[in-house]
Structure to design on (280 residues):
């Protein structure tokens, strides 16, 4: 019974992810593309839940849907594109071909690699509680933890510096 | 035939299929999109695929599960930093050129 429920949940989340992804890539209007991206993010959060990592699902919604979604929305609004026609206009056949090849090539390569070097995988995901995550983060991986904060700080400072408009002298 | 059955019994394969499809969609969109913001959305798709693959591989195999979850958290942090920087670059490009279509801003001036 639980097995079947898990399969149903997986199919629902995977469909959400893929439908959102297609919408994010192909939608004419950028706002609709953003809605597709948010749909994908929620679907991935559901897949995290299914793999018994609820903390990651929570962080996915908090960071991706909350922060990154708002940032992308800001980018859409700041650039003020003509409504509904941001991505209109025909593509050349060459561009369509290039896009298809660049999408297929890495997917096929990685798929073949996974097929060739497949690993044993259990059916039950490992259970890690948040306390252990914190211990590992501040124990063996403290350097990565500190570095990511430095990266975030530098990115924010750089963003402020880039967006800074010097006052014109009169 | 039995190899195929083994594969279909392996839940890791399903998660990785979704992740690889996300990666392919992201690459497709990166070439397909004309504006910088559309390309940013595609990159976010790819990063999500990466996080999903990492977590699936660590949760469902005998690898250290805590490490996999932390790696996915690092990917999220990097994605947030990258989105911030792309927002700033988009603002600068929009201010200087009046639009953000990648085809028309591809020339350098030496």
């Amino acid at each position: 019974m639980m097995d079947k429920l898990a399969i149903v949940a997986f199919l629902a989340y995977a469909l959400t992810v893929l439908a959102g992804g297609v919408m994010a890539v192909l939608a004419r209007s950028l706002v609709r593309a953003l809605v597709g991206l948010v749909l994908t993010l929620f679907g991935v959060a559901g897949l995290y839940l299914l793999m018994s990592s609820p903390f990651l699902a929570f962080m996915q919604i908090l960071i991706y849907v909350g922060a990154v979604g708002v940032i992308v929305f800001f980018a859409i609004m700041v650039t003020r594109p003509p409504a509904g026609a941001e991505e209109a206009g025909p593509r050349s056949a060459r561009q369509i071909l290039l896009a298809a090849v660049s999408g297929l090539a890495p997917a096929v390569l990685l798929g073949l690699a996974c097929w060739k070097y497949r690993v044993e995988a259990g059916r039950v995901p490992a259970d890690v509680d948040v306390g252990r995550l914190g211990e590992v983060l501040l124990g063996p991986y403290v350097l990565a933890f500190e570095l990511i904060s430095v990266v975030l700080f530098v990115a924010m400072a750089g963003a402020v510096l880039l967006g800074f408009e010097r006052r014109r002298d009169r | 035939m039995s190899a195929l059955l083994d594969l279909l019994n392996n839940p890791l394969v399903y998660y990785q299929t979704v992740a690889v499809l996300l990666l392919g969609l992201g690459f497709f969109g990166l070439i397909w999109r004309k504006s910088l913001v559309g390309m940013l959305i595609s990159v976010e798709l790819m990063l999500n695929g990466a996080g999903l693959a990492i977590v699936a591989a660590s949760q469902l195999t005998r690898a250290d599960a805590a490490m996999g979850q932390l790696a996915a958290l690092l990917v999220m942090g990097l994605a947030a930093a990258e989105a911030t920087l792309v927002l700033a670059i988009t603002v600068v490009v929009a201010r200087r050129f009046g639009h953000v279509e990648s085809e028309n801003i591809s020339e350098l001036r030496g």
Q: What stands out?
A: The radius of gyration of chain A is 21 Å. The CA atoms of residues 105 and 111 of chain A lie 10 Å apart. The mean pLDDT of chain A is 86.
